[in-house]
């Protein structure tokens, strides 16, 4: 399959040379994602928006949230970990990816309270075939 990318919707992608996500073969790497819409005032609201963006990005590259194997959550205020964790749980309750939550001093965007990155591992063709046909359980 090679390499595919999902571009960032802002000019920053070209300016600093990065992508929203990269898919190489059966792995999708999603860059740190923030939500800075002025209406999103809490870390919980921002996290919900970020996970929606991550979900859309995964679909664009042939995956979905069921394929996520790792998330990293960066918080401006560590006290927000429970609220953001609940949103994470709503999205990944059955998937339960390896997860790291930590506090950082600042984000590039001053409005950001949360930044989240993720890695997804897609099933190989054989795994997908076996899953569809009840094999390998």
UniProtKB/TrEMBL annotation:
GO MF annotation list: hydrolase activity
Record-linked InterPro entries: RutC-like_sf, YjgF/YER057c/UK114
Keyword Hydrolase: yes
Protein name per UniProt: Rid family hydrolase
Keywords carried by this UniProt record: Hydrolase, Plasmid
Pfam family of the protein (one): Ribonuc_L-PSP
């Amino acid at each position: 399959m090679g390499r595919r990318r999902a571009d960032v919707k802002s000019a920053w992608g070209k300016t600093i040379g990065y992508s929203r996500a990269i898919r190489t073969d059966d792995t999708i790497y999603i860059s740190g994602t923030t939500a800075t819409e002025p209406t999103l005032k809490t870390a919980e609201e921002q996290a919900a928006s970020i996970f929606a963006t991550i979900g859309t990005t995964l679909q664009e590259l042939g995956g979905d949230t069921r394929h996520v194997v790792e998330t990293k959550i960066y918080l401006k205020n560590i006290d927000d970990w429970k609220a953001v964790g609940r949103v994470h749980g709503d999205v990944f309750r059955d998937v339960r990816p390896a997860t790291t939550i930590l506090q950082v001093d600042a984000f590039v965007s001053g409005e950001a309270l949360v930044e989240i990155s993720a890695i997804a591992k897609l099933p190989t063709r054989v795994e997908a075939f076996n899953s569809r046909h009840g094999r390998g359980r």
